[in-house]
Amino acid sequence: MMSERKGLVQVYTGEGKGKTTASLGLALRALGHNLSVYMIQFMKGGDTGEMFAIQRYLPNFTLVQFGKDALKEKQLKMVSFDSKEKKENKLTEKERYIFLSDKAESEPSRMGLEHAKKIINAGQHDIVILDEINCVLARKMIPIDETIELIKNRPPHVEIVLTGRDAPAEIIDMADQVSESKKIKHPYDKGILARKGIEY
């Protein structure tokens, strides 16, 4: 359902946990008012909880992934840990979630931007979430001027949400709302890796 309201630009950035989670919370609220949501995840691929939940329960919410392994198999890597690490409650092989190198992710990120152009310009969704695009832009894997042009020229009702740490100054300047997540503590600092159902 497309409304007549003006769509704004929101940014969730910072070193702390919860940027993607915040965008998913926004999506849930929007769905409650019969808005349509489309999420494009950059640099991510694999069996994430949000993907399963959206597929099973949220018909007005579409999620697609443009991480390299999402285009091939999955980004849950088989990583071998020794028995000592397992005794310390670190994750098993099938549960470790990792990101690939910038070089590996550059072409999938470019494909993700091209897909975003089609989705945004079509104007069929009220909210389009570009998850982790700030990281992609900060690492110069896709052109920032092209991204800004896409956002500025979007249909007026489409709300754009950009997540990821290191949001470039140009993105912050053009945004209507910017929220920064500050890290005070994180389980990674204690060697606790991503947990199924919590971090992914």
Output the keywords:
about 200 residues; alpha/beta; 7 helices; globular
Characterization of this structure:
By secondary structure, the chain is of the alpha/beta class. The protein has a single domain (9-190), classed as Rossmann fold (3-Layer(aba) Sandwich). 35% of the residues lie in helices and 16% in strands. The protein is built from 7 helices and 6 strands; from the N terminus they run βαβαβααβααβαβ. It has helices at residues 19-32, 49-57, 83-87, 102-122, 133-138, 144-152, 169-174, and strands spanning 9-13, 37-42, 61-66, 127-131, 159-163, 177-180. It has a 6-stranded parallel β-sheet with strand order 3-2-4-5-1-6, sandwiched between helices. α2 (49-57) links the parallel β2 and β3. The protein starts with 8 loop residues before the first strand and ends in a 20-residue tail after the last strand. Mean pLDDT is 84; it is low at 71-97.
- Distance between the first and last residues' Cα: 29 Å
Briefly note the structural class of the backbone.
alpha/beta
Please trace the helix and strand order, writing H or E for each element: EHEHEHHEHHEHE
**Biggest β-sheet description:** 6 strands, parallel
Approximate helicity band: 25-40%
How do the strands of the widest beta sheet line up side by side? 3-2-4-5-1-6
CATH class category label: Alpha Beta
Rg estimate, integer Å = 17 Å
Strand content: 15-25%
Low-confidence stretches: 71-97
> Which overall shape is indicated by the principal axes computed on the Cα atoms?
globular
Beta strands, count: 6
The CATH superfamily name is P-loop containing nucleotide triphosphate hydrolases
Q: Overall mean pLDDT score? A: 84
Q: CATH topology, which one? A: Rossmann fold
Number of helices: 7
Give the domain tally: 1
CATH-derived architecture: 3-Layer(aba) Sandwich
